[in-house]
Specification:
Length: about 375
C-alpha cells in the first residue's frame, strides 16, 4: 500500500485516510473509486447529495490543493463510500487539464490511500418531504442524484423521476445501475436524453429521447403536481432547465441545485432585478437594527437579507462579481478585506480567515459590515 503525497490535520473537520478498494471505469471519461476507512473504523453516515473534500499534493513542492467530489453511492452501503470522477481534459491550448481528476485517473489505484474530510454540503435530499421528486442531471452532475435515487428507492410511496442528459452512450455513466434501481422499485422511473446518439445507441433501449431536456419533454413527463426538484450539471444545462421549470409555474423554493458557479448565472433575470426599496421592510438583526452591508470598492450599500445563505450569494444578487471557486469554504478564493463589523460562519470553513479578512462564500453578517469588494 502506498500513501499519495497528502498533508495531515487541519482545523474544523480532521481529514481521514481512505483506502481505495475498487477502481471502476464507468465509461471513457468517468471512473468510480470505492473507499473504505484506512483505520478500519466505521464511516460516518452521509446524507445523499453531500461530498468529500480531498487533500492532494499540488503542482509544486509544499503546495496543497483541495477538490470536492460528490458521494455517488448509496447511503446504505455500510463501510464504503463511492466517488465518480470525470477526467477534465485541457479544453484548448490556453487551459491546463484538471490536476486532481487526471491524477486520480492516472495514478491512483487499488490499495492506495487518499485523504479527505467530510461528508459535508448543503445540497441534500429532504427525506422528510412527502412530495414526489424529480432528479435532473447533466453529464457528471448525475453523481449526487444517483445517491439520492438509492435513498428514494426506500420511500416506496414517494414517486421519483430521474431525468439525465448527456452526449451519447459512450459518456453515459452509471446508467445500468440507475436502470436496475428503476426496474426493482416501482416508485422510480427514468428518462435518458442523448444529445447526439452514437451509431450503436438504440432509442428505447439505451436512451428515451434524442436532443436536450426541453420544456416540452418536462411537460410530457410530469403530470401536474407539487414536486421537489433537484438539479445538478454544467452551466448551460442548469440555466436551461431552471428556466423551463420556472416557465412551467414551478415555485423557486421547490428547486434545489448544486452549481459551482455564480448563483446569478442560473437565475440571472430575477437576481439582476433584485432591489430593496425600504430599509424598514427588510429583516433586522438582534436588537432591531437593520444590518447594512457596504461593498466599498463598488460603492454599493444595501440592507442584508437573511434569506441568502452567504455573503457571496448576496453580493452576486446586487450585480457584483467577487472572486470565488469552490463556494464551500475550502479554497479561499473569495477571501476579501473586512474593514468593519463581525461575521458568523454557519458552516465553518476549512481554515478560519485571519483578523480583518472574510471568506464570503460561507459567512453572514452579525451586524452592519464593510467589505472591500
Amino acid at each position: 500500500m502506498r500513501e499519495l503525497k497528502m498533508d495531515s490535520a487541519v482545523s474544523f473537520t480532521t481529514p481521514r485516510s481512505y483506502r481505495v478498494v475498487r477502481k471502476v471505469p464507468e465509461n471513457g471519461v468517468i471512473t468510480s473509486f470505492y473507499l473504505e476507512a484506512a483505520d478500519d473504523e466505521p464511516l460516518p453516515p452521509f446524507t445523499p447529495g453531500q461530498f468529500l473534500t480531498f487533500k492532494m499534493a499540488g503542482p509544486a513542492p509544499g503546495v496543497i490543493v483541495w477538490r470536492n467530489y460528490s458521494l455517488s453511492g448509496s447511503p446504505d452501503w455500510k463501510g464504503t463510500y463511492r466517488i465518480s470522477v470525470k477526467r477534465e481534459p485541457a479544453t484548448d491550448p490556453a487551459h491546463v487539464p484538471g490536476l486532481v481528476s487526471n491524477l486520480l485517473h492516472d495514478e491512483v489505484n487499488v490499495g492506495d490511500v487518499l485523504v479527505a474530510r467530510g461528508p459535508e454540503g448543503r445540497f441534500t435530499l429532504d427525506a422528510q418531504s412527502g412530495r414526489p421528486v424529480v432528479l435532473l442531471s447533466g453529464g457528471v452532475g448525475l453523481t449526487p442524484l444517483v445517491s439520492m435515487m438509492h435513498a428514494l428507492a426506500r420511500q416506496r410511496d414517494r414517486s421519483t423521476t430521474f431525468v439525465h442528459a448527456c452526449e451519447n452512450g459512450s459518456v453515459h455513466a452509471l446508467g445500468a445501475e440507475v436502470r436496475a434501481l428503476a426496474a426493482e422499485f416501482p416508485n422510480l422511473r427514468t428518462c435518458f436524453c442523448y444529445r447526439t446518439p452514437g451509431a450503436g445507441d438504440v432509442e428505447g433501449r439505451d436512451f428515451d429521447a434524442p436532443g436536450i431536456v426541453s420544456r416540452e419533454l418536462l411537460q410530457s413527463l410530469l403530470p401536474i403536481d407539487d414536486y421537489d426538484f433537484y438539479l445538478c450539471g454544467p452551466p448551460a444545462f442548469m440555466q436551461g432547465v431552471f428556466g423551463h421549470l420556472i416557465s412551467l409555474g414551478v415555485r423557486e423554493e421547490r428547486i434545489r441545485y448544486e452549481f459551482f458557479g455564480p448563483a446569478t448565472v442560473i437565475r440571472a433575470p430575477k437576481a439582476a432585478a433584485q432591489t430593496v426599496a425600504h430599509a424598514e421592510s427588510v429583516p433586522t438583526v438582534d436588537g432591531g437594527d437593520v444590518a447594512m452591508v457596504s461593498f466599498t470598492e463598488s460603492g454599493v450599500t444595501v440592507p442584508w437579507d437573511p434569506k441568502f445563505e452567504c455573503l457571496l450569494d448576496f453580493a452576486e444578487a446586487q450585480g457584483l462579481n467577487p472572486s470565488f471557486s469552490c463556494r464551500a469554504g475550502i479554497c479561499s478564493s473569495c477571501e476579501c478585506d473586512l474593514s468593519k463589523g463581525e461575521l458568523d460562519y454557519p458552516i465553518e470553513p476549512l481554515e478560519m480567515p485571519t483578523a480583518g479578512k472574510a471568506l464570503i462564500c460561507c459567512a453572514i453578517p452579525r451586524g452592519s459590515i464593510s467589505l472591500k469588494i
